[in-house]
Amino acid sequence: MKLKINDSFYISDIIATDKPAYLEYLQEKQIYDQTLAIPFPYTEADADWWIDHNLEATRSQNNRSVNWALRRADDKLIGGVGFFGHKIGRDHKAELGYWLAKPYWGKGLMTEAVRKVAAYAFSELELMRITANVFVFNQASARVLEKAGFKLEGLLRSHYKKDGKIFDGKLYSLLPGDLNLPVT
Ligand SMILES: CC(C)(COP(=O)(O)OP(=O)(O)OC[C@H]1O[C@@H](n2cnc3c(N)ncnc32)[C@H](O)[C@@H]1OP(=O)(O)O)[C@@H](O)C(=O)NCCC(=O)NCCS
User: Fold this and answer.
1) Residue 184 lies in a domain
2) For residue 59, is it within any domain?
3) Does the beta carbon of 93 sit less than 6 angstroms from any atom of ligand 1?
4) Does 135 reside within a domain?
5) Protein residue closest via CA to atom 44 of ligand 1
6) What is the 3-state secondary structure (H, E, C) of 88-126?
7) Please, how many CA atoms are within 13 Å of residue 108, restricted to the half-sphere of its CB?
8) Which domain covers residue 105, as residue numbers?
9) What is the band of 184 on the pLDDT scale with cuts at 50, 70, 90?
10) Which of 10, 34, 100, 183 is buried most deeply by CB count within 10 Å?
């Protein structure tokens, strides 16, 4: 699978040689602080597990991936987007997750990535509903979802516990008719 974002960036499957980029960009505490499943510090074992898990998941689903790399035109991984644990054909809904290397924040990149992945998922992965859970303080992520057309379904009171702190979350969802694709 390959989805073009623009002339400088694209989305494609995760590959074994992405390991150094994961190790470089996920040593960023702010990414850890705003997500639930990304460890910190991010170790070689974490990268190995993640890459192997995805290669195996892709193999087991007729070479169709549900997690991808966001890449520069020179192929270097600079972020991730996908549906962790999604089984194509079994599930009609899936939870979206994403992260971007800090040097690339604030350029509209993840909004475009989310739009492209959502359109692909509705047409190719048999999805009818995409959800996204955001920590209540993660305004950048909430904004990405709103720009892509996601609707806020509710406040998840005391839903998260991370590093001993309990805090609220926000639940967003996207149905096929909600998708807000840019006019090109
Ligand atoms: C969330 C994240 C993916 C956003 O990626 P990005 O490419 O920078 O996002 P975009 O540029 O497409 O959009 C960001 C929007 O948030 C806004 N924003 C950024 N920081 C903000 C803040 N502190 N408060 C309010 N809005 C903020 C930007 O202004 C922009 O909105 P605009 O286009 O209306 O001006 C990136 O910050 C990231 O990887 N964060 C750490 C991991 C994470 O939070 N993952 C999501 C978990 S749910």
Assistant:
1) no
2) yes
3) no
4) yes
5) 34
6) CCCCCEEEEEEEECHHHCCCCHHHHHHHHHHHHHHHHCC
7) 6
8) 2-178
9) low
10) 100
**Average per-residue pLDDT for the chain:** 97
Find the 105 Cα to ligand 1 centroid distance in Å: 7
CATH of the domain at 63: 3.40.630.30
Does residue 128's CB lie within 6 angstroms of at least one atom of ligand 1? Answer: no
166: number of Cβ within 10 Å: 10
pLDDT of amino acid 183: 63
Distance between CA 94 and CA 142 in Å, rounded?
17
Tokens of 130: 């995409």
Please count the structural domains in the chain: 1
CA dist., res. 3 & res. 7, Å (int): 11
Structural domain includes residue 183? no
The pLDDT of residue 86: 95
Find out whether the peptide bond into 41 is cis, omega within 30 degrees of 0: yes
**Predicted local confidence at residue 180, as pLDDT:** 87
